[in-house]
Amino acid sequence: MVITDGEPTAHLDEEDRPRFSWPPSPRTAEVTGAELDATLAEGAEVTFFLMADDERPRAFRRSLSERPGVRVVDTTSETLGPAVLGRYPRGSF
Fold first, then answer.
1. pLDDT by residue (tens digit) across 30-51?
2. Mean pLDDT of all residues in the chain?
3. Which among 31, 57, 76, 84 is least buried, having the fewest CB atoms inside 10 angstroms?
4. Can you tell which superkingdom this protein's organism belongs to (predicted)?
């Protein structure tokens, strides 16, 4: 489960140093996508709860939702709690 404002803004570079960028750099988006793909390749299912509705987050949302094994839930700060709890059956944590 990932709760996000909708955009990747940091990644580790080749020397494991943190790199921060807003708006997100193409490299940050690339590294984030590669990490997500590696997680999915191990059989994980990932749910993103997105809390933003600007153009850049919508583009990132589209790139996420195209991947098998990824669910994307649009939410707000007011609906986040019920959205998270509603996605998981009681006792599945």
1. 898 899 999 999 999 888 888 8
2. 84
3. 76
4. Bacteria
Q: Which of 47, 49, 36, 5 is nearest to 23 (CA)?
A: 5
Q: Nearest CA to 53 among 9, 5, 87? A: 5
- 7 token code pair: 């955009």
Q: Which pLDDT score, from 0 to 100, does residue 59 have? A: 81
Report the C-alpha gap between 72 and 8 in whole angstroms: 15
**Token digits for 91?**
């006792």
From 85, 61, 90, 86, select the one nearest 74 (Cα to Cα): 61
* Residue 40: CB atoms within 10 Å: 15
